[in-house]
Amino acid sequence: xxxxxxxxxxxxxxxxxxxxxxxxxxxxxxxxxxxxxxxxxxxxxxxxxxxxxxxxxxxxxxxxxxxxxxxxxxxxxxxxxxxxxxxxxxxxxxxxxxxxxxxxxxxxxxxxxxxxxxxxxxxxxxxxxxxxxxxxxxxxxxxxxxxxxxxxxxxxxxxxxxxxxxxxxxxxxxxxxxxxxxxxxxxxxxxxxxxxxxxxxxxxxxxxxxxxxxxxxxxxxxxxxx
Amino acid sequence: xxxxxxxxxxxxxxxxxxxxxxxxxxxxxxxxxxxxxxxxxxxxxxxxxxxxxxxxxxxxxxxxxxxxxxxxxxxxxxxxxxxxxxxxxxxxxxxxxxxxxxxxxxxxxxxxxxxxxxxxxxxxxxxxxxxxxxxxxxxxxxxxxxxxxxxxxxxxxxxxxxxxxxxxxxxxxxxxxxxxxxxxxxxxxxxxxxxxxxxxxxxxxxxxxxxxxxxxxxxxxxxxxxxxxxxxxxxxxxxxxxxxxxxxxxxxxxxxxxxxxxxxxxxxxxxxxxxxxxxxxxxxxxxxxxxxxxxxxxxxxxxxxxxxxxxxxxxxxxxxxxxxxxxxxxxxxxxxxxxxxxxxxxxxxxxxxxxxxxxxxxxxxxxxxxxxxxxxxxxxxxxxxxxxxxxxxxxxxxxxxxxxxxxxxxxxxxxxxxxxxxxxxxxxxxxxxxxxxxxxxxxxxxxxxxxxxxxxxxxxxxxxxxxxxxxxxxxxxxxxxxxxxxxxxxxxxxxxx
Lengths: 226, 497
Known about the structure:
- The complex is a heterodimer.
- Chain A has 9 helices and 8 strands.
- Chain A has helices spanning 2-11, 13-29, 35-42, 46-58, 81-103, 132-137, 143-152, 204-210, 212-223; strands spanning 33-34, 62-64, 70-73, 107-112, 119-122, 164-167, 174-182, 188-197.
- Chain A has a 5-stranded antiparallel β-sheet, sandwiched between helices.
- In chain A, strand 2 and strand 3 form a beta hairpin.
- Chain B starts with a helix and ends in a 25-residue tail after the last helix.
- By secondary structure, chain B is an all-alpha fold.
- The longest helix of chain B has 36 residues, at 106-141.
- Chain B has one domain: Amino acid/polyamine transporter I (Up-down Bundle), CATH 1.20.1740.
- In chain B, helix 6 (106-141) runs antiparallel to helix 15 and helix 13 (299-334) packs across helix 14 (352-371).
């Protein structure tokens, strides 16, 4: 038993995926599906399928029905809910950013601003950050950092800034426009940062309105994040 | 993961899952891995078995004791693998007999039930008499001579102790068993270490170079050595009462068989080396350990180990009665026994009526045997023989049931099928040989076995004629209930006793 667990965590990471696909198959086929049916529809060798099923039953992700041949999802599967929602969130964020990057010639980054710190959820691979350390530590240096500062020093009952800018601070001739993403309560949670040549940053309100639809979609996806 | 997400959002309705288990009433998920381990270790009584097995095996075979032990170990490994097929798939307080019923049907299931009741019941009696005998010895060294009544009083006293401990609940009985057994094993291993330090060089290689015994002697020696392992499967009866049972119970059986096997190997090797060194007899010498302690210059350790054996025997009685009461409880729920036997104490979750019914019998039978003039030692060896025949029969049936069960649920693999079938066939031979050995050496025990077999057959025929439907309804176990399914709103254990 111990040996088998070591296999699962260390030497056979594929087994974890197989185990997840067994769970998915039980969910797809519905309660009462048998070991033989599961091994056939997943194309797993029978001994492997039986071993995975017994491990999942042992940890109560699956239960055997009273006839002992049929399986159903166990109560513990509810623990996987957070995991699958997180995967779903990442997939949707990826889809929105891919569409933006196809449309905009320039770097499109998604910054995480929760707690008043700058982090990155997704960095454009084609336009790497010029100085990641400085961006996350010196809030005055970057557009997203300036967004955080503006939020911090905003007097009560005033409209929040629709965007923040920096030009030439990090790389001469280039700059960035950061557009905020807010949660349902109006708190600043993230920002989309557009890294562009200084010449294309002349009309920031137009850039911000160009992104309005994407910002709304990202806001709703991030809202559903666990 | 789409289907899984959908299922989590809207759990599917599952038909054919009851709201309550047929075993409801027994405590639900009260004990952990350590307690289950204690149950199996306690039922084996490794201290008592390690001390006495070498003398018993050498009485049956002229050749290599170690070979007999290794064969027995291998065979028990096969039995353990067959039982594992059930314990990782179902929680059954009826343990081996419920498993047999699931594979071979209720008729074989009844045979297994009767064999198991005899196995557990007679080993519990053996434990009580043994503890009574050691207690009597202890009292007489203090200068009080009780005559024949001392052992009988001890049996009644320890029977009462068992009832009190078992009624309090599974957790306490398991903990008591574990502490007692650990102390006893540690004492015995220390003594064996001291004996080994006195051994002469020539004797060290003798056990390994002993010749291969004849096939008949080999089978007889193996059968006797197997008796030292019986009880390892008793954790299976605690399926409902254990947390993560499909993990804890198969692992307990595997580790127990491995660990006691090593202890027996050490004990057998060192007792042979020691008796060779000091020129003592080993065959059927029930005082071998005490004498070895005396010759090694530590007679007080011999007495301590005797005390350890006595406590080990009480633990054995407690563990065997634990398993036996769960088996009877299940038979009561199935209606094979009166329904009252399937009643559990609602406060403690223990099978109170089954305990109250079985403990007086467990005390009465040894008292009758002692009353008609049997010596405690004679009584113990006869009870042990009957128990071993019961166990080995149940093992044979459950090994034969495993492939049939797996085929029925569509999960038979060639490896498991071969291991279980070979184990069943070899066990059948071993039981046969064992009976011929018993016929030669312990005629009275053989008569007891035959009488019990007659009673079992009579009960079976009576049930078949008058309670056919109840016989057909055998095989109840702790099924998955609605509360185990995805979407159940009850939290861990809520609403379950």
